[in-house]
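thought: fold this chain, then report.
action: predict
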Amino acid sequence: MHTNFNPLSRGAAWLTAVSAVLSLAGSAAADAPRTATFQVRHELSVSVPEGANSVKVWFAYPQDDPAQTVSDVKIDCPFAHEVTTDPSGNKILFVEAKDPSVKEFVIVEEFTLQRREVRSGVDPSKTRPINDGDRAKMAAYLAPNVNVPIDDEMRKLSAEIVGGETNPVLAARKIYDWVLVNIDYWVKDPENKKASPVGSAEYCLTTKTGNCTDFHSLWTSLARASGIPTRMVYGSFLKAELAGQDKDQSYHCWPEFWAPEIGWVPHDVAVADIFVGDFTLDDVNGEKVRLTTADGYTAPDPAKVDYYFGNLDERRVTWSRGRDLTLAPPQAGGPVNALAKAYVEVDGKPADEKTIWNRKLTYSQN
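observation:
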């Protein structure tokens, strides 16, 4: 793991400007939080290999979440199915096809989603340092994951970034700003930068690039290394540019960190990195950059860089929380890295996305 870094490598002037906006409680505008309502279609196509005796599917399902209300759920599936709850509290649509005689089957979830903008305020004066009792209570959110390591080098780097700050909101913001200065979202330069296939903190730190899961894995490693409880949320943007189109919305993720007396605070440093605007928008990166955000990108926006620390736009759906998951019922394979779309096993063995299954998420806005 490479830990050499230059906190001013992408411009002291920009970092000073962003840090100056750190009257965090005033980050969000004073008007009422925005809301949006969507009609969502979530579809999974599964190809059945020749001779398969059992195909088990764990399909991501819209969660009970303070920021969203799900109603009018309709499930179309050719096999018996049930909505289960895994040990992490995630609702999952579970389907098992025993001795399937078909070559392919499709599962469809349709629902109405009302989503609310999150305005946390992130006021550092309303919290206190995290104590031993907090750490014991939140131990699950301070532990490493397979792709979110907490080793001596990560602890050293985290300590350098945080600099002894004990207020969890201010410490979290220092890590947020460090990531903005030192890591580039791969879509800015897709010909030369790539994402990892698994969402890896180590990959992100080593290559100084990645996608949302790489960014947020690194942020989570650094935060947990500083004793800040953190969990990952997997969902999707309902992208303005794709409204009403027969084109998959893909997935997105963001972290939530816990601060005493405040609770869980979301942020999205990956999307904030786009709005830093330290790149040229062109024909090579244009579409990818736009579709990395909820409602597009045209120019740098320091207000959005600040906004995404503690606040979230309303164009999202939440599918799951956590990594290294044990599903319900338990899968035969090892821990599932994350449930952003689906997990499928054929005769007890994990099945590849694209080869065996494909997910498509489309929507219209009311």
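thought: worth noting. The chain has a mean pLDDT of 93.
final: tokens above.
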